[in-house]
Write a structure and sequence with these properties.
The chain has 17 helices and 18 strands. It has 455 residues and is of the alpha+beta class.
């Protein structure tokens, strides 16, 4: 059984399908058809709703995609759909008055994203309206009025003491693990259990591939996997930390990390997707692993009471294969804080700026002393079956003078480091060329500008 609050009323669902989506439940059981299915993969935002959970003495709301949110993930939380607003909310009035709805199909999703911004929901604090709705697509291209409507509604953080008390009184019923110890016990007893954190990728296995997930365990409520620890030398993130919650800490580690997170999906995806899930899934085009590899990140892996620490770059063994023993799971990732003399740059290339998957993601961490490259860590995603370092490129830089000629030699070496694939996001030739150009860009940004009068 699961229990959740919908507009303040307790909803109980007996024996929920672990891979049944919230979207289907809303539309076909509760007949809340304002929530639309546009893509069934978390891209278009037509199914956006707000999910609330206790955060001390308040409720923390976050916009998420219902199409890839599994029903058990509602347990113990509060839910609001477009019907919850009653048609009179200022966001709705502004959209009507400014003609922000054309065909209208996408409009409920925009309403919920903008409504989330109006109450200070996760991932919207101090964020421009354009970024808030980056995970919502309008095929009628009516973004101007939508942006204007969002900007016209002031932000006022909601305080609802009655809802806080109702959530405190609502006892979760599904049996999610509460601690990492609980999770470790579950995986020891049943190592084939599928771990689900944000479901931003696993959700597509169900909606697009119609896969049977087998036994599952949901870790979104495991408190000690959601810890964020900032120290003078490093940042440690629990495996269940969501991108929206990690962004500020990552940005303090280095601004390029914060900008990279900004371009991972839309707000809805960042409000669900986790750092650990992105790593454990092992995607060759995951955005965060190349950056973390370049910075020398380490993973803590756990099996039962035993833990081991490995370099993140050693975790990825081959396409779809990671260094995980039976019953073992990613517990945390530790990212060293770059020293002030470290040159760090991270770039993502994709067909769209917002809410798109990388064609190539390149990360560079160089220590240059007196014009010599003393240390070089270069990593790319999208260039091979796994995110990986570029040993030839690194060797061509290390110990060499930091100049254009040696950068060119290192750029040529990249051709021997990777054998990229041809796919819809880019040909192998394109990927080789842009990877080399990113290194050239690094040199161009750091070299002294030359006046045309000097030639």
């Amino acid at each position: 059984m699961i229990r959740f609050l919908l507009d303040g009323a307790v909803i109980e669902v007996e024996d929920p399908d672990p891979s049944g989506t919230v979207l289907d439940y809303l539309r076909y059981t509760l007949r809340r058809t304002g929530t639309k299915e546009g893509c069934a993969e978390g891209d278009c935002g037509a199914c956006t709703l707000l999910l609330g959970e206790l955060d001390g003495d308040s409720v923390r709301w976050r916009a998420v995609n219902a199409c890839i949110l599994f029903l058990p993930m509602l347990d113990g939380k509060a839910l609001r759909t477009v019907e919850s607003l009653g048609g009179t909310h200022p966001v709705q009035r502004e959209l009507v008055e400014r003609h922000g709805s054309q065909c209208g199909f996408c409009t409920p999703g925009f309403v919920m994203s903008l409504y989330g911004r109006s109450i200070g929901a996760a991932g919207t604090e101090g964020v421009p309206v354009g970024d808030v709705i980056a995970g919502n697509l309008c095929r009628c291209t009516g973004y101007g009025p939508i942006l204007a409507a969002g900007e016209a509604v002031p932000v006022e953080v909601e305080k609802d003491e009655a809802l806080v008390e109702a959530l405190r009184a609502l006892r979760p019923a599904y049996g999610h693990p509460a601690t990492a110890d609980d999770l470790a016990d579950i995986l020891l007893a049943q190592p084939e259990t599928r771990i689900i954190a944000g479901a931003t990728d696993v959700g597509l296995w169900v909606t697009k591939q119609h896969r049977d997930l087998g036994p599952t365990v949901f870790i979104g409520d495991v408190a000690d996997l959601k810890r964020i620890e900032e120290g003078p030398d490093s940042l440690t993130l629990g495996a269940a930390v969501r991108y929206s919650d990690a962004r500020e800490a990552l940005a303090r580690l280095h601004p390029d990390l914060g900008e990279l997170v900004r371009r991972i999906g839309g707000v809805q995806v960042r409000n669900a997707g986790t750092i650990g899930g992105n790593i454990a899934n092992g995607s060759p085009i995951g955005d965060m692993p190349p950056a973390l590899i370049a910075l020398g990140a380490e993973l803590t892996l756990r099996r039962g009471t035993e833990r081991r620490t490995i370099a993140l770059e050693d975790f990825f063994l081959g396409y779809g294969r990671q260094d995980l023993a039976s019953g073992e799971f990613v517990e945390s990732v530790r990212i060293p804080r770059p020293s002030p003399d470290m040159l760090v740059r991270i770039w993502k290339l994709s067909k769209r700026f917002d809410s798109d998957i990388s064609s190539v993601c390149g990360a560079f961490a160089l220590r240059i002393e007196d014009g010599l490259v003393m240390e070089a860590r270069v990593a790319f995603g999208g260039m091979a079956g796994i995110p990986a370092r570029a040993p030839g490129c690194e060797a061509a830089l290390t110990g060499q003078v930091w100049n254009e000629g040696n950068v060119e030699a290192a750029a040529r070496a990249l051709a021997t480091d990777y054998e990229p694939l041809d796919d819809l996001r880019g040909s192998a030739g394109y990927r080789r060329k842009v990877a080399a150009n990113l290194l050239r860009r690094l040199w161009a940004e750091q070299s002294e500008p030359v006046s045309v009068l000097d030639g």
